[in-house]
Amino acid sequence: MSSSTTVRDARLDPAGLAADAAACAAVYFPYVTGTAATFEEVPPSGAQMAQRVEAYAASHAWLLAEADGMVLGYAYGSSYRPRPAYRWTAEVSVYLAVDAPRRTGAGRALYAALLERLAQRGYRTAIAGITLPNDASVGLHQAFGFTEVGVERHVGWKLGAWHDLLRMQRTLAPDTEPPGSAPAEPA
């Protein structure tokens, strides 16, 4: 990570939330419109992104990487599945601005902070879904100890083709003991 790159929590005050959500929406936009990295087909507005940030920042985590006042990317944890038995598992995602310098360590810094925060908040397992092919994302996850748990074949139709989704998993905290109090779920 560049010495000028910082990772911070998304701001939840009204002005900070609006600015952070707009920056995240701008980072996400080209992934939605030009890639199959996400199966979302309509880019969320700043207001819609703000709802997502608010929903997951407190219960899971929503982090931004910045350098020289520019948002380089963001990472967040969210609910894996709605049933209560899954409440100790978080789904994780990271997006880097397509015009941000590469190989700065921003993605690694975001994921390190995110995984640490989720473990501190009581989550036991992190799950990632990666549209294939995506060697960079697979490599990032492997570097953080994620292992492949399966491939969902032809589950997403986008950009005129079927796409597979690789599922990867990582333990955040030992699960040998019964869980304590459950992590807070989003409102």
From TrEMBL:
Q: Which PROSITE patterns match?
A: GNAT
- Assigned keywords, A-Z: Transferase
- Which residue range or ranges hold the N-acetyltransferase domain? 5-173
Cross-referenced InterPro entries, in alphabetical order? Answer: Acyl_CoA_acyltransferase, GNAT_dom
As one GO molecular function, the record gives:
acyltransferase activity, transferring groups other than amino-acyl groups
Tell me yes or no: is Protease among this UniProt entry's keywords. Answer: no
Its protein name is GNAT family N-acetyltransferase
